[in-house]
Amino acid sequence: MNVGFKEWALVCEALGSGRQSIILRKGGIAEGREGFRFKHDAFFLFPTLFHEQTSKLKLPPETPLPASSGNVQSNLFACVEWTAEITDLKTAQSLASFHVWRDEVIAERFHYDGREQLSFAFVRIYRLTPTWEFAESPGYGGCRSWVNLPESSVDLGKTPVLSAAEHDALSGKLRKLLRSAEALER
After folding, report:
1. pLDDT tens digits for 77-112?
2. Would you put residue 113 in left (φ > 0), alpha (ψ -120 to 50) or beta?
3. Which of 103, 24, 11 minimizes the C-alpha distance to 53?
4. With contact defined as beta carbons under 8 Å apart, do 4 and 147 qualify?
5. 3-state percent helix, strand, coil for the chain, nearest multiple of 5
6. Phi, psi angle pair for 42, to nearest 5°
7. Rounded to two decimals, what is the model's pTM?
8. Which of 70, 116, 149, 167 has its CA 20 to 30 A from that of 173?
């Protein structure tokens, strides 16, 4: 089974460019009573075209959304290296230089549904070659993070976005930052 993780297209671009190696998630209404959790160790990034995302990210307001072709184009694969539950808003805010979300979005996600926390994942991102393209389907809709994807008809090559040295250095910085305030899960 191929698992896709739905994320805003511009956040996918930040992950694919190496500007970001973390995912912070609260979860949507389809996540169930337990809320969101990183239940897969590896997944394809499924870029979504939420039209208000440019105003919710630390990007120039004129940043265009990628054009929609009517098909899903996945060109990134993620491996979760470690996770943490962030239960302090100040800790969540201390991650501001490591992602493209605006502070208000982080606070909104942190406080959503009365449970004050965010799920954090440090991920290793790989660029896929060729880009995997498949038909859009109603089954991919809704407020859920995880979707089942079709089988790819071609072999997809995977190239790390960051070098091993860059990736390891970033992991060390983030572990140190979170260790001071949070218990790391894995």
Report:
1. 999 999 999 999 999 999 999 999 999 999 999 998
2. left
3. 11
4. yes
5. 30, 35, 35
6. -150, 145
7. 0.90
8. 116
